[in-house]
Design a protein that fits this description.
single chain, 6-stranded mixed β-sheet
Length: 214
């Protein structure tokens, strides 16, 4: 097996970072949060010769999960995650998409939900599952310990944190998740996130204004 690589495909008008983790030798991989623009996603996968093995979701918001059902149909892949507490969000994607005027997004029900402490793998690459509610009740993050790499979804951003004014959001719960689950992973851990550039946990712990006092 080769090295773990990651690529980002911005999708939907929200410019959500649909992420592809893949092995640079086998080209096998998984996709995280295919929120929409499935034709664009498929074109990028084909251009890079990547063979997907599964669809992973961090949470149920439309820009993260809205394209998962279509991608499952076209590639025959299982949808894994998030935590079951996001079922109400997954069932309202089409309603939310209509509100924002975004066509083509669909409600979705995963093939299986995830719990804290599970481990997902493709090839030799393993990711620990951490349940980090606050931005969304069922939000999970994926941590590859071997490469000190976290997919933080919308829990933590470069210089910010996830919004908590959406249905199911809870500001204190989000801060607790970051304090108890994310920061202990270590300052040297790099992270990718759902919008914008990623960063390092240590930089966020020291400089992120939302994390002061954690």
């Amino acid at each position: 097996m080769g090295k773990l690589q990651a690529g980002v495909i911005p999708v939907t008008p929200f410019q959500q970072n649909c992420t592809v983790f893949f092995d640079d030798e086998t080209k096998d991989g998984v996709i995280v949060d295919p929120g929409g623009d499935v034709d664009v996603i498929l074109k990028v996968l084909e251009q890079n010769g990547i063979s997907l093995k599964a669809i992973w979701l961090t949470h149920g918001h439309l820009d993260h999960a809205g394209g998962a059902a279509e991608l499952k149909e076209k590639l025959g892949l299982d949808i894994i995650g998030p935590h079951k507490d996001d079922i109400p969000l997954l069932e309202r994607i089409e309603t939310q998409a209509a509100k924002y005027g975004i066509p083509g997004l669909r409600n979705v029900m995963p093939d299986r939900f995830l719990e804290e402490g599970e481990v997902l793998s493709f090839g030799d690459h393993s990711f620990e599952v951490l349940h980090c509610p606050g931005h969304a009740p069922g939000h999970v993050v994926y941590f590859n310990r071997a490469n000190s790499l976290l997919h933080a979804g919308d829990v933590l951003f470069n210089g910010s944190i996830g919004r908590t004014d959406l249905p199911g959001g809870n500001h204190q719960q989000l801060l607790d998740s970051i304090r108890d689950k994310v920061l202990p992973l270590g300052d040297d851990v790099g992270f990718l996130c759902g919008h914008g550039p990623g960063g390092r946990i240590g930089d966020e712990r020291r400089n992120n204004p939302y994390l002061k006092g954690l």
